[in-house]
Amino acid sequence: MTDVLTFQSVIMDSTQFKHWKKDHSRALVSHFFCALTTAGGEKSLWEVGFFDPAEHKITVFVQDETGEIIIKPADDVFTAGAPEVEELKLDNKIISLPEAWNVWQERKDEFFAKEIMGDGFVILQCFQGKTLWNITFITKSLKFANLKIDATTKEVLSHQLVELVQK
């Protein structure tokens, strides 16, 4: 699994990022994202998002299989009622995705016992002042099964099972 600290360094040390940053000097790291298989493996390339408060947009950077850095077009921010996108400050104190995955594995039956998981995704973000692993899977019964795990303490901060289809 990709180490997010290393991935962030690769992106921020790239020529593409440095050129982009000149025009977006106030931009800050907002999140990391990766699609996951049912078994928790990486299904997509990792992405890192940078929020530009001046434009209120997020620009996503990806490193492809050849090592090339790709910049996706800036997109509007979806904040789900939150007042502002929070800066994600990473350090060596955060737990790795494999550690967060172990928490998911240990607790999923407690919260989602009747559900059969399909594929999902993981987001590393700062939300309400806490750095968290936000792990979500789409169940075979078309629901989102979500755990938010504190990235420093491994504590489950919340769990949700959300219907995708309104009955």
Task: Explain how this protein is built.
A hairpin with a 3-residue loop joins strand 7 (130-139) and strand 8 (143-150). The protein is 20% helix and 38% strand. The longest helix is centred in the middle third of the chain and has 16 residues, at 97-112. Strands 1, 2, 3, 4, 5, 6, 7, 8 and 9 form a nine-stranded antiparallel beta sheet that branches. It contains three helices and nine strands, in the order ααβββββαββββ. The model has no long low-confidence stretch (mean pLDDT 92). It has 167 residues and is an alpha+beta fold. It has a single domain, classed as Roll (Nuclear Transport Factor 2, Chain: A), CATH 3.10.450.
How would the blueprint of this fold be written?
Layout: H1 4-12, H2 15-23, E1 28-36, E2 47-52, E3 57-63, E4 69-71, E5 75-76, H3 97-112, E6 117-127, E7 130-139, E8 143-150, E9 156-163
Antiparallel strand pairs: 1-2, 1-6, 2-3, 3-4, 3-5, 6-7, 7-8, 8-9
Briefly, what is this?
The chain is of the alpha+beta class and 167 residues long.
Tag the structure with descriptive keywords.
single chain; alpha+beta; Nuclear Transport Factor 2, Chain: A; nine-stranded antiparallel β-sheet; 3 helices
Distance between the termini: 38 Å
Give the low-confidence spans. none
The overall strand count is: 9
H/E series: HHEEEEEHEEEE
The biggest sheet amounts to: 9 strands, antiparallel
User: Under the CATH scheme, which class?
Assistant: Alpha Beta
Would you identify the CATH architecture? Answer: Roll
Whole-number mean pLDDT: 92
Shape: globular
Helix share, percent: 10-25%
The gyration radius over C-alpha positions equals 16 Å
Beta-strand content estimate: 35-45%
**Please, how many domains?**
1
> The CATH topology, please?
Nuclear Transport Factor 2, Chain: A
Pairing-aware structural class of the strands and helices?
A: alpha+beta
Number of helical regions: 3
